[in-house]
Amino acid sequence: MTQHETALSFDILSYPREAIEDGVILETDAAPEADQLFLPQVYRVGSNAVRTAVPHAADAYASIARGFGLSPDKTMLVSDQQGARVALQNGMGVATVSNKRGATTTLDLLRSPQSITDQTLYENPLYSDLAYADVAEALYTPGQIRVVGFVGRTGAGKSTTINRLVDSVEEAGGHAGKFEVDAFFVRSRKDRRAWLNEPGISDEERTNRQRVITWWDLGRASSVLSRIRDGEHVQLDGLYDMQQGGEMVGTLDIDPGDKGYTVFVEGTALLVPELTPAIDSFVYLNTHDEARAGFLMERNLRDGYTPDESRARKVLTDAAETNEHIAGPLRQARFNQGQLAVLDNTHRGDKLRLMPPYIPEK
C-alpha cells in the first residue's frame, strides 16, 4: 500500500499478511493501557531492551521476536522509536506512532482493518515484490543512456542481481551491460597481498594501505563511465578479474549505441565523491547480515580461504564499508536527493523486494 493516509498519528510502513497470525511487538512510551489491547498476541518491550539486545537495531528486533517465539518475517512492530524502521531489514511489519491514540488505533487496525480504512491492507503492503523483468523495465529507457549504480555490502548479491537484470533488459529487446568498479583495482590479488605485507614499512603506512578505498583507481573508473554516458564505445583490457583469481586479465567492452542503453554499475564504493557525478541513480541492495555472512563463507571457502580467514575478511570489509564506502552520511546525501532506492535481496529468490523509503542502517 502507499503511505497510510489518515489524520491519526500512525504510519504503516509494511504489513506482512502473516503478522496478525503470529504476533505484534509493542515498543512505545505512548502505549495504551493493557485492558485496551484486546489482542492476546501483543508483546510489550521497552526501547532499552532493543538497545541492549545486540549491537545492530535490525537484528535486535529480530532477536526479541524470536525470544517471544515469533518468526521475525511474520511479526508486526508498533513503535514510536526513531530507529524502528530498521526492522524492515528482517522482513518485519512496521507501524510508527507518535502518541497513545496512534498506538491504540494501530492495534485496532490490526484487529479489524475495515474499521479504519477501506484499503486492502493485507493485499497491498507498502513494500512490493518485483519480478526482475519489472525492475529492468523501470531502469531502461529506449533512446537514453542511463547509468545505475548498485551499491551494497560485500556479499549482498550485487553481481548476480545485475546479471539477471541485464538478461531481463535484453530479453525485452533493450540493451544493457555491467560495469564492475572492482575491475579498476590497481593491483592483482597476489600483488596486493605482497604490498599489504611488505616488510619494513611504518605502522602508519601499513594502516593506510589497509584502507580498501585506496585499492581502486576511482578517478579512472569515473572517467570511463563518463565516456560511456557520452555515447563512446569503450574497450579496455588488463583489468582486475575476480573470476580469474584476481589477475589483471579482465576486459571491458561497452558500446551504448544510439538505441538506448543501461549501464549497471556494481561496487561497494559507488557513493564516494569520485564516482557519484558519473552515476545517474543508485539502488542500495540490502541483504540481512546473517544471510550475507553465510554466502560470504561459501564463496571464500570456494576461493581457498579457511573459515577463520573468511570471518576475518568479513570483519575487515564490513569496517571499511561502514567507515568509508557506504558510510551513513554518503547514504544520507543520496537519499536526501531522491537518488537512493532500496531493494532487499535477503531471500535471493526470483523476485526483489522494493522497500519503503528509508536508509539501511548497515
Characteristics:
362 residues, 7-stranded mixed beta sheet, 5-stranded mixed beta sheet, disordered N terminus
Report on this model:
With 362 residues, this protein is of the alpha/beta class. It is 35% helix and 21% strand. The chain has helices at residues 19-22, 47-53, 57-67, 100-111, 132-139, 158-171, 189-196, 203-209, 218-229, 289-302, 307-325, 328-336, and strands at 10-14, 23-27, 42-44, 75-79, 93-97, 128-131, 145-151, 176-180, 234-241, 247-254, 261-267, 281-286, 340-344, 351-354. The protein has a seven-stranded mixed sheet with strand order 6-14-13-12-7-11-8. A five-stranded mixed sheet has the order 1-5-4-2-3. A two-stranded antiparallel ribbon has the order 9-10. Strand 9 and strand 10 form a beta hairpin. Helix 10 packs across helix 11 (307-325). It is globular.
